[in-house]
Amino acid sequence: MRTLLFGGLLAIMANTGCHQANKSASKDTLVDTTLTTDSIFNLVQKQTFEYFWDGAEPHSGLARERYHVDGDYPEHDQNVVTTGGSGFGIMSILVGIERGYITRQQGFERLVHIADFLEKADRFHGAWPHWIYGETGKVKPFGQKDNGGDLVETAFMMQGLLCVRQYFANGNEQEKALAARINKMWEEVEWSWYRNGKNVLYWHWSPTYEWQMNFAVTGYNECLIMYVLAASSPTYGIPAEVYHEGWAKGGKIRDSVNAYGYTLKLHHNFARELGGPLFWSHYSYLGLDPHGLKDKYADYWEHNVNHVLIDRAWCIENPKHFKGYGADSWGLTASYSVGGYAAHAPGKETDLGVISPTAALSSMPYTPEYSKQAMVHWYKHYEGKLFGKYGFYDAFSETDNWYPQKYLAIDQGPEVVMMENYRSALLWKLFMSCPEVQAGLKKLGFESPYIK
């Protein structure tokens, strides 16, 4: 693992008007409580981007599954890359170019390196696995029977790659060549294969165990983007009935649940009364713009805003009386947890007293003032315990006095992307400019301002 210098953080803080820093909680953390909200925003976005730049796995250029400041990796997986998190990281590189963190040429060269790796890495009917060994491109099983293609992770990767294609499509000859290589990978994903002959998409296929995992993907959860891309594919597309009968369960995805004065009109799997973890309103919408996005089941902007507001309201009510919860410290989603890893969400069984900063930060487009309020509070009032060289650490629990200095790619990536979508709609504009995506959405019966 490459050495990551603390000096880079000092330089960034100098550029945002920092003059004097408080005592840090670790050698990797420096906090200046005099920063303005805008300066903190800039700092958080830049440092979180560094997870995917300086912190990338060097052989592949992709995002490491995890990074632990103390270097303790019980599974010795520090060079394992994650497909979905890398898709988010690819989008973050585009943010880095636009924000001036890196030059266009630097970003382009890294993305060429990534394309070189992805073209040679293990794929299964066009789909990458969940985890890949960064040194070799070979699959690392996510579980015994999960040693093949992962269509959901592939969708997250392809969401990012299509943004890159659009970004460089009208560039110089070398940039156009990269866009063409990405287009080839896009056309090679066999979305229709993952139907297994049925009107639903399956999450996994293994060359050893074939369909034994038997995980049909139905809504509502984080996987909408997979169905949109499958419908959009020009080579292995699915018909609309796969979406309506599979994902939407023949209309049973419709619901009407009210909590704290906000209504959810989609049935959240395993979390009906108060909504699921907040990443369900993030992952599919890093590229898929929810503004004006509607089908016969929901208005997705309204749905996502209400999902976030319910989560925040639960944390303010705090019925389980955890320490540190409130209007300025909220956000339940899947992340590290005191007991390992958990999909935190509002509810007596699913709220474990763990706040995940990505939940509020990645909700920036939906609840900008509330998200900024939490961001500033965490930065200024925890003496550096929550903030390090790659931005806010993954999760914490004031109740358990638990402040691990750990990061996960799938949580860092949405922060960078959604903070940028709030600022400029960069990734939304790129992804929604894909003519195939517009056609796919139209095929499925969606309305969107981007559909011509």
Automatic annotation (TrEMBL):
InterPro entries on file: Glycoamylase-like_cons_dom, UCP028431
Annotated ranges, domain Glycoamylase-like: 214-435
Domain of life (superkingdom): Bacteria
The protein, known as: Beta-glucosidase
Organism of origin: Chitinophaga silvisoli
